Amino acid sequence: MATTDARPRADKQRNRQKLIEVAAQAFARDGAATSLNQIAREAGVGIATLFRHFTTREELIEATFRNELARICDAAPELAAAEPAPAALAEWMMRFLEYMTTKHGMVDTLQAMMTTGSPLYNETLGRLTDAVRTLMDAGTASRALREDVDPSDVLAQLGGIAYMAGEPDQRDQAARMIDLLIDGLRIHN
186 pairs with which residues across the strands? Predict the structure, then answer.
């Protein structure tokens, strides 16, 4: 008797990942009105394949959001290891703004999911706070950043920057605001 492998076939995994990547680009580009047919077409699959992976628009939005969340959060330890702490934190913050831009086309659906008892809100807040904590810890260990600042406060300030200057055409202003935030986090001798 043959054993069955519980892992999805490689082509199914590739199709799912491609759909998520294309959906992120489409939602950022076209907003909430993005056509699922268009996403399937851009991913190089049929609409039936999209619906085999994601039975509703909401499932696709949540999977796309979770993928983008993982991408931004997973970057924190890599940046902390590769760059001086203030530069790593600033780079992560700019990536966060890109992440927020990607969310714009998904905002209404995400807000509905986050207010209907979905664990998505707490998971998101926890993962983002942990990412900021990783970068702040690297900065305090290297004595480049203050240790008396709560990572959740830094995240809240970054959220304000994203709200006020989060659009792609505001990146210069956002970068200046991030520089001010980083300067406030530095240890000045």
Answer: 145
Specify the fold of 62-185. Tetracycline Repressor; domain 2 (1.10.357)
Could you confirm whether domain 9-55 is CATH 1.10.10? yes
Q: In this structure, are residues 110 and 103 in contact, taking their beta carbons and an 8 Å threshold?
A: yes
Name the residue ranges covered by the structural domains of the chain: 9-55, 62-185
User: What integer best gives the mean pLDDT of the chain?
Assistant: 87
Q: What pTM was estimated for this model as a whole?
A: 0.82
Q: Would you list the DSSP string of 143-176?
A: TSB-SSS-HHHHHHHHHHHHHHH-SGGGHHHHHH
Report, as an integer, the average pLDDT of 82-98.
94
Of 100, 74, 106, 115, nearest to 163 by C-alpha is 100
CA distance 89 to 16: 31
pLDDT band at 115 (very low <50, low <70, confident <90, very high): low
